[in-house]
């Protein structure tokens, strides 16, 4: 008895003589066979890139803090504050120390490249000492009828990533299978099940590339491989939060790395862990951990964790995350995108002596915005 045809996959006919066929519309659903990392962050097969080196502009935010650069710090009566160059403060702005227990607000009355003249204890707040290297918050303030002021416009950062040609194994229909008097739906189902298996293999390869792929030195050629950079590459190369301290993946560890990311202006939304860290996450106090009983990720209950900085991260368990590793970032700033027309396709390979063979290939890249706000941790338990 023939197996039931495997849904949309059966629409592909390996014997039609086509040398290349785009099958991404047919196989896109195969990405979501289980709720793993790819389904949590999404894959934009309908939003292709158009060159094997993909560029994008990333807008920069003007500084909302400045750093004190004043040997010995400021006493409660000092009215000149040494600061790092490029501070961004202007006359009239209010400043306050971000350190705990400081309630003083000061006002800027004059600016220079590396110093500010300030009025202390603005509106009768209590003057306190300010340490060297303190991080100071800026409250912008403009005078009525004021001029346009200084130009603090920032040029966008231009980033790029290569596309990677990521193959699956081949489809193979032997001469015997073709010659047999098989019912049409049975032959279609045979091809369909192979297609489904190849799509799952691609999903595994995509996930590994997303996490750990390293960028090649050039765009490649017929003798040099071209590879894209994954999350770990972007975290390392863009001065992201890289935590190599061996320790348990508890609530304090997550909060420490989360705060480092939040301080860069981005609130993480996703925490990707391997199967080895499920117990560590489950051991976090249930008062900050929410379970969604209806959803599972690779056999585990999906969890959300409320972190101390106020953001909720969805925990995704994916077996492709290495033992002891986790990634925490805003998944909305990551996008796996195909090269136009090469998201997933079947191409004729050299036929065996007694078989027809088709290769399943994809060409993808990772567009990663704000990579400095990726937290990558390893050697965890």
Please, could you describe this protein's structure?
- With 381 residues, the chain is of the alpha+beta class.
- It has helices spanning 24-27, 37-41, 175-179, 184-212, 231-237, 251-262, 278-282, and strands spanning 20-22, 53-58, 65-67, 80-82, 94-97, 105-111, 115-119, 135-139, 157-162, 164-174, 241-243, 270-273, 289-297, 300-306, 312-317, 326-329, 334-338, 345-348, 355-368, 375-377.
- The protein has a 7-stranded mixed sheet with strand order 11-20-16-12-15-14-13, sandwiched between helices.
Shape: elongated
Distance between the termini: 49 Å
Order of helices and strands: EHHEEEEEEEEEHHHEHEHEEEEEEEE
Strand content: 25-35%
Describe the main β-sheet briefly.
7 strands, mixed
What would the average pLDDT be, to the nearest integer? 84
Side by side, the strands of the main sheet go 11-20-16-12-15-14-13
The Rg value, from CA coordinates, equals 27 Å
Count all strands and give the number: 20
Number of helices: 7
**Overall SS class:** alpha+beta
Helix content: 10-25%
Low-confidence stretches: 1-18, 31-35
List keywords for this structure.
381 residues; six-stranded antiparallel beta sheet; 7 helices; 18% helix; alpha+beta; seven-stranded mixed beta sheet
Note the topology.
Layout: E1 20-22, H1 24-27, H2 37-41, E2 53-58, E3 65-67, E4 80-82, E5 94-97, E6 105-111, E7 115-119, E8 135-139, E9 157-162, E10 164-174, H3 175-179, H4 184-212, H5 231-237, E11 241-243, H6 251-262, E12 270-273, H7 278-282, E13 289-297, E14 300-306, E15 312-317, E16 326-329, E17 334-338, E18 345-348, E19 355-368, E20 375-377
Parallel strand pairs: 11-20, 12-15
Antiparallel strand pairs: 1-18, 2-9, 3-8, 4-7, 5-6, 5-8, 6-7, 10-19, 12-16, 13-14, 14-15, 16-20, 17-19, 18-19
């Amino acid at each position: 008895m023939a197996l039931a045809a495997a849904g949309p996959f059966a629409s592909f006919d390996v014997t039609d003589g086509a040398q290349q066929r785009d099958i991404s519309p047919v196989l896109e659903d195969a990405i979501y066979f289980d709720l793993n990392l790819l389904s949590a962050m999404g894959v934009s097969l309908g939003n292709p890139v158009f060159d094997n080196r993909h560029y994008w502009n990333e807008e920069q935010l003007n500084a909302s803090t400045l750093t004190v650069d004043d040997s010995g710090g400021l006493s409660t009566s000092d009215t000149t504050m040494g600061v790092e160059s490029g501070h961004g403060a202007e006359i009239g702005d209010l400043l306050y120390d971000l350190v705990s227990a400081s309630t003083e607000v000061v006002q800027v009355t004059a600016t220079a490249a590396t110093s500010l003249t300030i009025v202390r204890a603005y509106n009768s707040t209590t003057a306190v000492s300010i340490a060297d290297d303190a991080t100071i918050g800026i409250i912008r303030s403009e005078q009525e009828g004021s001029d346009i002021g200084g130009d603090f416009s920032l040029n966008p950062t231009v980033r790029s990533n290569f596309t990677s040609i990521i193959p699956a194994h081949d489809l193979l229909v032997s001469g015997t299978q073709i010659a047999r008097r098989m019912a049409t739906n049975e032959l279609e189902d045979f091809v369909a099940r192979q297609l489904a298996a190849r799509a799952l293999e691609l999903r595994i390869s995509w996930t590994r590339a997303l996490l750990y792929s390293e960028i090649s030195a050039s765009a490649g050629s017929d003798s040099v491989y071209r590879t894209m950079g994954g999350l770990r590459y972007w975290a390392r190369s863009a001065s992201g939060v890289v935590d190599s301290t061996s320790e348990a993946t508890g609530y304090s560890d997550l909060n420490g790395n989360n705060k480092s990311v939040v301080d860069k202006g981005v609130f993480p939304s996703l925490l990707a862990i391997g199967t080895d860290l499920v117990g560590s996450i489950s051991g976090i106090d249930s008062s900050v951990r929410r379970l969604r009983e209806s959803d599972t990720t690779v056999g585990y209950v999906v969890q959300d964790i409320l972190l101390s900085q106020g953001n909720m991260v969805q925990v995704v368990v994916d077996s492709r995350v290495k033992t002891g590793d986790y990634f925490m970032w805003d998944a909305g700033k990551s996008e796996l995108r195909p090269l136009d027309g090469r998201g997933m396709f079947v191409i004729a390979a050299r036929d065996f002596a007694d078989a027809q063979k088709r290769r399943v290939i994809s060409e993808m890249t990772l567009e990663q915005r704000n990579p400095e706000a990726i937290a990558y941790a390893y050697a965890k338990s």
